[in-house]
Specification:
The protein is built from eight helices and nine strands. With 310 residues, the chain is of the alpha+beta class. The two termini are 17 Å apart.
């Protein structure tokens, strides 16, 4: 989701092919799509492939370097093979991680600057402002046409992204892609925080079948920071309607995606969804991606104090 939503199409088409990313030209579970063929081809010819990717972890998204002598534990857990593969036959395929390496960039400071940094840490801790990401999922049972759920109970996030995927694809199904985010005939969707509704003017008349979804598509691009810029994430309206339907809500006071630290608010954050048609068989899964402003502090003894959960 991070790559699809927040990265420009030029970067995805060039550098992120190193991480195995290829744009899908059709619904991702179609085996004749160019994206599927490009992702499969290295394993067909060589059976092994080498990739490099950044770690999509909050603390590594900071532009600041960490101070020295910090202990960091990183645990990488691969998804199950049934989640990683799309097949059109009955064969069972397995994914094996042969080796994994972590490359770290470090700086060597001049002695004077190093001493100055140590003296500063004696007086106050080092502070790092971070955007903490929190992801969860909620199941919506088949047959429902209205669904309401509490998403966050303490700190109000600065932004929320909601997406919907079929339950069978979510748990892993070799015949379908877990990255097919459909609209499921959503008629209205909103976020409520302490009685305030987002967006202020409701999406009460959405009709994807008749191409009436301009506002959520516009709000997605605006709240991701692509409005009035020369860059784009490459998601077209047709893709949005078919398999890349994301609802992005900006909950900051300024209603701008400027990256500035926003005033932290507390309260209950609730999502409400209304469907024009009943939820299909086996139900669907609502993916919730929240972004919070957080602060990480590190004192002279390298003791970390934060509300951040990595």
């Amino acid at each position: 989701m991070d790559i699809d939503l927040s990265t420009t199409q030029a970067v995805k088409d060039s550098y992120y092919t190193l991480a195995g990313y290829y744009k899908d030209t059709d619904v991702p579970n179609v085996h004749t799509g160019t994206g599927f063929i490009n992702r499969r081809s290295p394993f067909v010819t060589h059976h092994t492939c080498e990739y490099i990717s950044k770690l999509f972890v909050d603390i590594f998204n900071s532009e600041h370097y960490l101070i020295n002598n910090l202990d960091i534990d990183i645990e990488v857990t691969p998804n199950e093979s049934v989640f990683n593969f799309i097949t059109k036959d009955a064969n069972v395929y397995r994914f094996q991680l042969i080796s994994c390496k972590l490359y770290i960039k470090s700086l060597y400071l001049m002695d004077g600057l190093n001493l100055e940094l140590a003296a500063k840490l004696e007086l106050e801790p080092a502070r790092y402002s971070l955007q903490r990401s929190e992801m969860s999922s909620l199941q919506i049972a088949q047959g429902l046409q209205q669904f309401t759920a509490n998403l966050f109970h303490e700190q109000v996030p600065r932004s929320i992204i909601l997406a919907f995927v079929r339950y069978q694809s979510f748990i892993g199904n070799a015949t379908s892609s877990p990255f097919t985010f459909e609209h499921f005939d959503i008629k209205d969707i909103n976020i409520q925080v302490n009685g305030k509704r987002y967006p202020n003017i409701p999406y009460s008349d959405l009709d994807f079948a008749n191409n009436k979804f301009a506002r959520p598509f516009h709000d997605m691009q605006e709240n991701l920071g692509f409005l009035n810029t020369t860059e784009a994430n490459g998601i077209t309206m047709e893709q949005y309607k078919s398999y890349k339907c994301f609802f992005v809500f900006n909950l900051t006071n300024a209603q701008e995606n400027d990256g500035c630290f926003d005033l932290i608010k507390t309260g209950t954050t609730t999502a409400s969804v209304t469907f024009s048609t009943p939820v299909p068989a086996n139900g669907i899964q609502m993916i919730v991606y929240g972004s919070h402003d957080s602060l990480l502090l590190c004192d002279r003894n390298r003791v970390i104090t934060t509300d951040l959960t990595v």
